[in-house]
TrEMBL record:
Keywords: Ribonucleoprotein, Ribosomal protein, RNA-binding, rRNA-binding. GO terms for cellular component: ribonucleoprotein complex; ribosome. The gene is rplD. This is Large ribosomal subunit protein uL4. The keyword Hydrolase does not apply. InterPro entries: Ribosomal_uL4, Ribosomal_uL4-like, Ribosomal_uL4_dom_sf. Part of the 50S ribosomal subunit.
Length: 203
């Protein structure tokens, strides 16, 4: 059981998250995420794809030179590539239970470190970047990289241009972004959405 501080209110919210964080589960989920993001568009031309004449370079015998068929052979500059990369899909299936457990453990990791905060309202933030900078300064969050989870378009617009801030909708919260940023700040309403994703076991 963790007590998550609610910034600006002095209150806390009780959260039921794993007591023990398994780094291997986090590794598996991050590896699955990054594999799914790979475009897989790398492509090389094989010997049959290069634009060279297929005419034999010189007679097979009596020249004193090695036997060659055409300039498209892999040993020549500009020739085809042997076993080079071809377009492919790098994604694979990871069980839903592992994905859910990975998200729970990533949240627990931030909670253990005291870097998971909830916010009821972003006071004074109405769409301007300087307003969000002032809000960060007021809560001593200027320095670290920050993952902001919000469904408020004005708050998202205020924060999205800051290089140290990554903005996500509650539905897009994921293990990689949680671990990639130092601090996680979530709207209280976003926390309810995340609890629903975790099967109602967030509190």
């Amino acid at each position: 059981m963790y007590s998550l501080p609610v910034l600006g209110s002095g209150k806390t919210v009780e959260a039921q998250l794993p007591e023990r964080v398994n780094p291997h589960v986090l590794y598996e989920v991050v590896r699955w995420q990054l594999a799914s993001r790979r475009r897989g568009t790398a492509s090389t031309k094989t010997r049959g794809m290069v634009s060279y004449t297929s005419k034999k370079m010189y007679p097979q015998k009596h020249t004193g030179r090695a036997r060659h068929g055409d300039y498209g052979a892999p040993i020549f500059v500009g020739g085809g590539t042997v076993f080079g990369p071809q377009p492919r899909d790098y994604s694979y299936t990871l069980p839903k239970k592992v994905r859910r457990l990975g998200l729970e453990m990533a949240l627990a990791d931030r909670a253990q470190q005291g870097k998971l905060f909830l916010v009821e309202r972003f006071e004074g933030v109405a769409g301007k970047t300087k307003e969000f900078v002032a809000w960060l300064r007021a809560h001593n969050l200027e320095g670290p990289s920050l993952l902001l989870v919000t469904s408020d378009p004005l708050v998202a617009r205020s924060a999205r241009n800051l290089p140290q801030v990554r903005v996500l909708a509650p539905e897009g919260l994921n293990v990689y972004d949680i671990l990639h940023q130092e601090v996680l700040v979530m709207e209280a309403s976003a926390w309810d959405v995340v609890k629903a994703r975790l099967g109602g076991e967030g509190e």
